Amino acid sequence: MTGFAEHRRVATVALVVADYDEAIAWYVGRLGFLLLEDVDLGGGKRWVTVAPANGQGVRLLLAEASDEAQRKSIGNQTGGRVFLFLETDDFARDHQAMLEMGVEFREAPRFEAYGTVAVFADLHGNLWDLIEPKRQG
């Protein structure tokens, strides 16, 4: 199995949302993400991707719920656990900016062995960590 695995990466993660435009506004307006793609696929479906403005990390595919089962997962895609981890090189700067943009933090910043972290919720209640990893060395 050598040769093929090193040429792969997780590039996009689907996030079920209630409304494309509402989700775009939140991720671009509150987290400062870039809207990378917004392609009409017909039948009310769109291919909408956003990513951190620095272009690093995984893209999010904002997938509008299309049936009741999908609608039930909005805001709880991981059963109440932290879903995604937004890394920063300056926790204090980004935490303050996010507070100013109306991002809801569920706890005060804390210092862990792996870095500085605080849990925040996205527009639907999915939990994220804002984290500045502890520097190695």
Question: Which properties best describe this structure?
Answer:
four-stranded mixed sheet; 39% strand; 137 residues; five-stranded mixed sheet; 3 helices; 9 strands; alpha+beta
Give a verbal description of the structure.
The protein has three helices and nine strands. With 137 residues, the protein is of the alpha+beta class. Helices cover 19% and strands 39% of the residues. The mean pLDDT is 93. It is globular and about 50 Å long. The strands form two sheets. Strands 5, 6, 7, 8 and 9 form a five-stranded mixed sheet that branches.
Fraction of residues in H or I helices: 10-25%
Q: What structural category arises from helix and sheet content?
A: alpha+beta
Largest sheet: 5 strands, mixed
Beta content comes to 35-45%
Note the overall shape. globular
Alpha carbon gap, first and last residue? 33 Å
In oligomeric terms, what are we looking at?
single chain
The helix count comes to 3
Give unreliable regions as ranges: none
Mean pLDDT score: 93
Q: State the total count of DSSP E strands.
A: 9
Name the helix and strand elements from N-terminus to C-terminus, one letter apiece. Answer: EHEEEHEHEEEE
What would you report as the Rg, rounded to the nearest angstrom? 16 Å
